[in-house]
Design brief:
alpha+beta; five-stranded antiparallel sheet; two-stranded antiparallel ribbon
């Protein structure tokens, strides 16, 4: 099936007559006379009134943006945004030395949390690189076990995360 170009006119059973104003890889954005802007699947049923034959880039700006974000995350080790638990927002950690005469240090919890999330994301990138490497399978398994133990050591910090889906998970006891 040949894709319709921007400016093509169609008649849709549900929305009526309209003009294609954008084309993505899976759908047309159509401005309908009676129903305004709607998106419809490229392979949906409609009557073509007049097809525009101009060259159309079938990738929308949104598709390009999502692809670029995906590439940047892959190569920069950036993970999805992770939320800190509401009760910790604006809080601070106070580190008090055990030695008399030394000053305490205040650390904003948000700053500490950001560093924990960066550590988690970098461990995930390391896992991916190990799995994609040319190492022997036994070496991959051993390195994966070390990483799993590291996650287990970091479970103390799960209390800071808003969503349990973001928690560190170590080795499950058998």
């Amino acid at each position: 099936m040949k894709l319709l170009g921007i400016g093509s006119r169609i008649n849709h059973a549900e929305y009526g007559k309209g003009v294609i104003t954008n084309v993505s890889s899976t759908e047309y954005w159509v401005t309908f006379i009676e129903n305004g802007l709607e998106t419809i699947d490229i392979d949906s049923e409609f009557e073509v009134i007049a097809a525009a034959e101009n060259e159309v880039d079938t990738v929308s700006f949104y598709d390009v943006e999502q692809s670029l974000l995906s590439i940047l995350k892959k190569w920069n080790g950036l993970g999805e945004p992770v939320a800190i638990g509401d009760k910790w927002k604006g809080g601070k950690m106070i580190l008090e030395p055990g030695q008399a005469g030394l000053a305490a240090k205040d650390v904003p919890i948000d700053v500490f949390f950001h560093k924990i999330v960066m550590l988690r994301d970098r461990l995930r990138v390391m896992e991916q690189k190990i799995n994609a490497s040319n190492l022997e399978e036994i070496e991959k398994v051993e390195l994966q076990q070390y990483i799993t133990r590291i996650y287990g050591s970091l479970t103390t910090f799960n209390v800071l995360f808003k969503s349990p889906n973001d928690y560190f998970v170590g080795e499950k006891s058998k």
